[in-house]
Amino acid sequence: MQVASARGLKKPAKVAPADPHEPLRLLATPHDDLDMARGDCLDALPIAAAVVRLDAKGKAHIELANKQFLTLVGEMPRATDKLVEDVDFLRASGLGRAITNFLLGEEQALQFQGDDGHVVGGRHFEVGFGRLGRAQGSGLRCLVSLHDITAQVETERSLRGEMLRDSLTGLPNRLGFNERIDALLDDPHFAPDSHAVLVLDMVRFSRVNECVGAIAGDELLITFARRLFGALRAGDVLARTAGDEFGILMKLDRGVDDAIQIARRVESVLAAPFKLSDLEIGVDCAIGCALVKGTEQLSEEVLRNAQFALKRAKTLGQIQIYEPGQARAARHRFSIETELRHAIERGELSLAYQPLIELSTGAVSGFEALARWEHKERGSIQPTEFIPVAEESGLIVELGRWALDSAVRTIRDWDEEIGSKLPISMSVNLSAIQIARDDVAAVVTETLRANAVTGERLTLELTESAIIQDPYRAGRVLEELKGLNARVAMDDFGTGYTSLAYLQRLPIDILKIDRSFVTAMHDDRDSIAIIRAVLSLADALGMETTAEGIDSAELARTLSYLGCTHGQGFYFAPPLNAVEALDYWRVRSA
């Protein structure tokens, strides 16, 4: 859209031929001086500009144009008024129609981005329309300006391409993948369940980096991506959505059956070891899948759904399909986590104390401290709901410290109220996360010292999972606790996979028989056989035993007869607050 020197395109009067070396001057008209001044003003502009008028028939004509405009639009007769619709550039780019619509409208000014209509190698412009006053004998007019921004647009496109691409594999990254999903969701012809998103995670990839180095790890990612790409169909979109996580957007013909079939094919393709230099590396993958329903507001929601399924796949060891309730449950857990953090900070949690009874005598030998949370709006929130959230979020460390300090302080307060040292112990639960992340022995040492309570009055209970996850660290922690004269109990024994070698090697004092065996022992021969085996094992290893979940006198008598040392359950008493627990001890000890 560049015109030679801005000149009137009306029919000229007879004038001397123009010097080809001089800029194009306004054509001679009755208002030659005024037109020449207007043309000079256009020529002075650094961008392509033209004055366009509308005739009585609604046709747009180029009245004046500067050099840049004429150069841009190409060949144009210099001595005639030119219809906008006859200029190829303006017609192909759609600007001619836009100019006419603007002149027929009521806007005083308009600015937008346009191009020359070429898909490849096209030019881009910042287009401006500004309404002009009517000249004598003229119709509606406007000033058209075109600022060439091709370089800027191409740079932005290049930068955006880099922003949407993973630099290592060359695949779309998470942002680029989300754009593809957004385009799908915005498609008016989209059908629910016609597409799915698979998310794959390279299980234990961090160990590869640790063992063979980051460069080999990068090589593995590239090789993994190539093999994965080869397993896909035409039209499937593969992206690297995180460090060792890949996403696939795929079209489905048969709904979820298609998704499962493709996931299994991908799984089988990735099963063969990867060869890196002289190494063969086997890579296990977890795969989660979410169908695109169309009800999702954002692509991130679709990807997050697939990641929920991926998390379950890691736990269960097989391909998982997202179930709608998972997102709601995750949001609920996050809400619990946030409120639990505040509850710990504000001291809104409490401990309840369930009596531990010596089955042979009926005497109270101690209490187990159990965390309780009474929410001011939701009411009582069960430990089975907030303890797993605390473990997942890491809050269990802070929660565990609070529980230990509160329990030891309670037994100190009882001693002071009675006026002597009570012949009872306090049991406090330890999480596997606490053992892994906290200096448990140091925390216990400081708590006992601060409350002037000796270690033999404290029993620390831990589950089998705490030992299985890191036997070496667990053994070291237990030895340190034994050095403080504290006792160690293994909770829920029989429900996990503890090796007998651990029982023999670790300093464990008490085995706690899980309530699932206790409550079923009179109706299930297998349960009573398991209890007999546990009691015999404990006796052989010199350990005491505690049966959980005793809810009847018959169970208490049977367990005592079989040789179980202690018991707890609702037959004796439910968890009590500190005042009720001390009163209970008084009554049983009278």
From TrEMBL:
Query: PROSITE patterns under this entry?
Result: EAL (PS50883), GGDEF (PS50887)
Record-annotated EAL domain positions: 333-589
**Which residue ranges does the record annotate as region Disordered?**
1-24
Question: Which keywords describe this protein according to UniProt?
Answer: Hydrolase, Nucleotidyltransferase, Transferase
Q: Which Pfam families match?
A: EAL, GGDEF
Q: Does the keyword Transferase apply?
A: yes
Asked if the keyword Hydrolase belongs to this entry, the reply reads yes
Checking Gene3D superfamilies in the record gives:
3.30.70.270, EAL domain (3.20.20.450)
Q: What is this protein called?
A: Bifunctional diguanylate cyclase/phosphodiesterase
